[in-house]
């Protein structure tokens, strides 16, 4: 559907744009999209006054640079492929170091490619440093299989933090899921003792949260205690992306929890902690790359809502919902009725979800836990 | 839109050349981009540390539309040709977009032995090429001093294979004076009666007082996109493509000067393309220059 939008602003400047609307952007998205296009394509000075009335801060030109150290696949969306486009679409500068280059993710029948060694990672970082451009606002990492590579990542993060003490390290501590590890066991102590202590935001699943803290999660209370233990290890923001806790909405839902220690101090001098809980609809398919997209989007939305984990989570989980819904719908079309979609068919519909990434309609609410 | 591009180009950690320059804009325009990184460097070699004295130009390879870009190695280039040929057997409608990067301003900046590979193997399987004047002359063995020469060179290039040729920049004198350079394009299409008709266009492009890296890669990617949307209308495809380039470059140079400060020449890091910031221009470029259709 193609719509022409005209915006008349006080100084009699006509603007027009053609938009393709998805069903998610019909209401306020229309106005926002028009203003966004107007800001970027016409002399903006007249419009900024008008738009700032309507707009939150994220349409001012953002200067935020992310260093993302993840896998690259030729085809499909995992690692850097999953993280870069959405972050760029949201206005982040993304510098990316590809830890591997594979034809596709390893869930396919076949995969081929090359890996980057810890030394090669170091060489690339040195190149950036030599040019004195090693100033980052964020570092983002995910799936790694090699302890020396991971240790090199930690060295790099520490050095970057010395260059910019405000740097935020977003880390997905990928260890395993559903009770078993899917990386070499010797990565566990490296994450526990070296990586997590320098991380600011982590996105473990239940298994990883339990493994890192040595404590099991059977109840919401357990989960809160585990997140507090994780805070003690370093990160001020923890999101347990999925758990087996029973959802209030029944067994078609899973529970995610988040916890953020803020700078606000309680009367007794301790840090105030906001804890949230979300009921997430389960999807009957195995996706790859969703964890990477999640970490990237949590980076983006905590950037825009630094002291509001509730909103950051609602935005992040909502984006995931839109992308996954579009993906599974398309995958079923490709596979045909009654047939299970294959890994290539289940590749995230990333490019097609651009509008949802830019401005996700909130489709789930986070409950703030009062404890 | 279901359009999948295979892009075989360089990757840089920081900045915008090669795949970094091509992927985001194509994705923003709705293309699926599969990217094979021919190298992984910290940043481009043309500007940061002056290890080498030239500017790298990378192009994309795409599937079905493929730009191919900067390569320094004949065996790599020959492998690219093999892959293109195999992909064309799988999809005869595949369009190979190739930037035949050889050099500029009278001298080669890749090894000389790439020249015969481009001439004899690559260009013959390409559908769209984006040479500069030097590369067009080198590939055809004919000099360009007048517009007539340029048209003849483009016809020679058509004979070699590609139905679409854009000479991205030339030394021809512009009608608008010396603050402008001349670009030319030529597209052969098949008429219903079986004959071939050729549309030729000319554009006067404002010169910019800076050295950019990655612009050739962005150009090839955007030409891919806009010829995809306007397959029989080179005039419009060129207007869109050159207009995007204009918006991105203008934003970049403006920001670079802000960073450098008054009276100071911006550095290479400061001149990195403002790609992410140009998203709206990429999605829907306002047309800021007109292509003249040549009547010949």
TrEMBL record, chain A:
Keywords: Acetylation, ATP-binding, Cytoplasm, Kinase, Magnesium, Metal-binding, Nucleotide-binding, Phosphoprotein, Sodium, Transferase. Its EC number is 2.7.1.35. It comes from Oncorhynchus tshawytscha (Chinook salmon). Pathway: Cofactor metabolism; pyridoxal 5'-phosphate salvage; pyridoxine 5'-phosphate from pyridoxine: step 1/1; Cofactor metabolism; pyridoxal 5'-phosphate salvage; pyridoxamine 5'-phosphate from pyridoxamine: step 1/1; Cofactor metabolism; pyridoxal 5'-phosphate salvage; pyridoxal 5'-phosphate from pyridoxal: step 1/1. Belongs to the pyridoxine kinase family. One of its GO terms (molecular function) is ATP binding. Catalyzes the phosphorylation of the dietary vitamin B6 vitamers pyridoxal (PL), pyridoxine (PN) and pyridoxamine (PM) to form pyridoxal 5'-phosphate (PLP), pyridoxine 5'-phosphate (PNP) and pyridoxamine 5'-phosphate (PMP), respectively. PLP is the active form of vitamin B6, and acts as a cofactor for over 140 different enzymatic reactions. Homodimer. PANTHER family: PYRIDOXAL KINASE. Its main location: cytoplasm. Its cofactor is Zn(2+); Mg(2+). Residues 141-332 form the Pyridoxamine kinase/Phosphomethylpyrimidine kinase domain. It catalyses: pyridoxamine + ATP = pyridoxamine 5'-phosphate + ADP + H(+); pyridoxal + ATP = pyridoxal 5'-phosphate + ADP + H(+); pyridoxine + ATP = pyridoxine 5'-phosphate + ADP + H(+). This is Pyridoxal kinase. GO terms for cellular component: cytosol. It is an enzyme of class 2 (transferase).
From TrEMBL, chain B:
It is an enzyme of class 2 (transferase). Pfam families: Phos_pyr_kin. Its EC number is 2.7.1.35. Pathway: Cofactor metabolism; pyridoxal 5'-phosphate salvage; pyridoxal 5'-phosphate from pyridoxal: step 1/1; Cofactor metabolism; pyridoxal 5'-phosphate salvage; pyridoxamine 5'-phosphate from pyridoxamine: step 1/1; Cofactor metabolism; pyridoxal 5'-phosphate salvage; pyridoxine 5'-phosphate from pyridoxine: step 1/1. One of its GO terms (cellular component) is cytosol. It comes from the Eukaryota. It catalyses: pyridoxamine + ATP = pyridoxamine 5'-phosphate + ADP + H(+); pyridoxal + ATP = pyridoxal 5'-phosphate + ADP + H(+); pyridoxine + ATP = pyridoxine 5'-phosphate + ADP + H(+). Residues 80-256 form the Pyridoxamine kinase/Phosphomethylpyrimidine kinase domain. The keyword ATP-binding applies. The keyword Ligase does not apply. One of its GO terms (molecular function) is pyridoxal kinase activity. Keywords: ATP-binding, Kinase, Nucleotide-binding, Transferase. GO terms for biological process: pyridoxal 5'-phosphate salvage. Belongs to the pyridoxine kinase family. NCBIfam families: pyridox_kin. Catalyzes the phosphorylation of the dietary vitamin B6 vitamers pyridoxal (PL), pyridoxine (PN) and pyridoxamine (PM) to form pyridoxal 5'-phosphate (PLP), pyridoxine 5'-phosphate (PNP) and pyridoxamine 5'-phosphate (PMP), respectively. PLP is the active form of vitamin B6, and acts as a cofactor for over 140 different enzymatic reactions. This is Pyridoxal kinase. It comes from Oncorhynchus tshawytscha.
